[in-house]
Amino acid sequence: MFGTAVDISGTDIAVSSGWNFATGPTSMGKVYVFSNDGTLSQVNDFYPEDAPGNDAYGLKISISNNFLAIGSLVHDLPVSNCGAVYVHRKVNGIWQSNYQKITAPDASANDHFGSYVKVVGNLLFVSATEEESETSQPDVNSGAVYVYKFNGTEWAFSQKLTATNTEFGVHQFGSKIETDGNRVMIASNNGNVTGYNFIYLYEINNDNVVFQNSIGPLGNLEFIIKDFTLANDQIYFVAFGIPGIMDNFNGVNIMSENEGNWILSGGFNVAQSDQIFSKIVVSGDNVFLGSDTYILAMERKFPLLHYRLNGETWNLQNTFYSGGPSASDDFFGSVLAVSGNNLLIGAPQEGTFSAGKAYIFDVTLGTSKFDKAGVSVYPNPTADKLFVKASGKDIEKAEVYSVTGKLLLTQENPTELSLQNLATGMYLVKLTSAEGQNQTFKIIKN
Length: 446
Description:
Shape: globular
Number of helices: 0
Distance between the termini: 33 Å
Helix content: under 10%
CATH architecture of the largest domain: 7 Propeller
Strand content: over 45%
CATH topology of the largest domain: Methylamine Dehydrogenase, Chain H
Number of strands: 37
């Protein structure tokens, strides 16, 4: 189950393993840390001595600002299933194996502290989605988010955030946390009833987290909010409607802020299929949609959809798949993370015995910025040489990438490229013009 959770920040990458979606925790997983500074390489892996194999260690992770926070939401100390978070630090470019273990200051049984973790600058947000101290109703699971501040030596407790009950009720506050600059959005979740039903907006002011307002109720019985993200000063939702009731039962809605109010400002329908798209990340004008389930009982490689904004219209650019075997569930795209132009994709059930994989993808490889007219690469397929012909354009650089986004070859002012030293398979050739525009071609090496 490598690829159960992923996160990326600049050149730092974290990927966890060890969780089975169907049966719960089944093995002692780990969290692996990689560096993508020119060459992708593993630099460390973590597993604490006091976490047994059923602690859900690494189910949620966050890497940012030289810190790695790891949730262990059913950890049993000091009380059963109270949860814990382990934080590692990178010092002088090296990830330290020693860690700070954090538990809630008011830990109670079954609070699931560590259900969601988010490092934002020198603040750490930790959810306990089953925390119930703010309600008199048993088993309501209203939830809470704990805020910690790094004081230069350790993470110290600072605030406890809760959502006051409304007429609709609050369930699992802290199910997801999104940030953009000083803005923080914390969601509550009604599960498969309406999905994310409220979003609470906060602002970071001098390291204090101050409540602003809330958005909701969101979704309904026929239209379930599966996931959301915050980017470009907008909120992007991916939703699922009941087939037969909604004509287009997967869709993306976009909300923008207008004088303090969040209003629907755009969106698009997702290409029709029985796949239920439930994960969304955004990079600039690019939206990526992943999935963790489908309707028809037929195993398959999971698709990852890439939409791009063209003027005012969202167009489907590409559908990506893992490198695993066909007709076998791989959960490719069930977890996603983005940092700049780098998209990190988990495929935790790919391969024999669901060993799992993670993929890193350069978003710029999926975009087209000038017409192919007048530009060609040939022959395709090729056994060796690849010729570049451009009419009316000066091609300044050619780059050859593997299908997983690894740069293999660079050549300035290309007229021909030699692929002789590359193995048989498919490659991506990215051409960059003197004006800085680019175009990518798929090439087969035989």
